[in-house]
């Protein structure tokens, strides 16, 4: 269980590679990375959006497939090509009237370290690098790409009384 007051969480920000997709990526013959997605993560993300939890994606990747996937789930803030994530994070907080304490950031590797050090509740998958595990308030039992998003979102929505709370839960 996440050791944090999840009732005050207003936003969850996810890295993609190694968090919402597996750490190993197949390459298309064109050289395009072909990421995996987890259906249960997708269900939880779209439900969280419907329930008013602000979900954002923050990744260094530049492919359109990431934007398409998460926008179809209702995510409005999909930030790609984030070479220095802390800049995007600061702007995201400012634009949405959020404080660090109201944010969960889920990352797995060094590019996420700076933001995770600031967010109120840094979380990571079980196969995150040691430096990220050391600063995380919660380490999911799931490895990246295999339900980390579902694990964290479900805990937040349950704590806020929004998991299976109404008919929004029973559809896409």
From TrEMBL:
Mg(2+) binds at residues 15, 108. It comes from Prevotella pectinovora. Its cofactor is Mg(2+). The lineage of its organism: Bacteria, Pseudomonadati, Bacteroidota, Bacteroidia, Bacteroidales. Belongs to the KdsC family. Substrate binds at residue 17. Keywords: Hydrolase, Magnesium, Metal-binding. Coiled coil: none annotated. This is Contig81, whole genome shotgun sequence. Homotetramer. One of its GO terms (molecular function) is hydrolase activity, acting on ester bonds.
């Amino acid at each position: 269980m996440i050791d944090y007051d999840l009732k005050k969480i207003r936003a969850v920000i996810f890295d993609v590679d190694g968090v919402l997709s597996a750490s190993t990526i197949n390459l298309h013959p064109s050289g395009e990375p072909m990421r995996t997605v987890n259906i249960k993560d997708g269900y939880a993300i779209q439900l969280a959006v419907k329930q008013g939890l602000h979900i954002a994606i923050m990744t260094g990747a530049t492919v359109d497939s990431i934007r398409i996937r998460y926008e179809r789930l209702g995510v409005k803030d999909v930030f790609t090509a984030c070479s220095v994530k802390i800049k995007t994070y600061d702007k995201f907080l400012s634009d949405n009237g959020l404080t660090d304490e109201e944010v969960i950031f889920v990352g797995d590797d060094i590019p996420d370290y700076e933001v995770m050090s600031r967010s109120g509740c840094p979380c990571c998958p079980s196969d995150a690098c040691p430096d990220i595990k050391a600063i995380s308030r919660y380490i999911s039992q799931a490895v990246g790409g295999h339900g980390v998003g579902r694990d964290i979102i479900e805990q937040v929505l349950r704590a806020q009384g929004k998991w299976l709370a109404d008919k929004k839960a029973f559809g896409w």
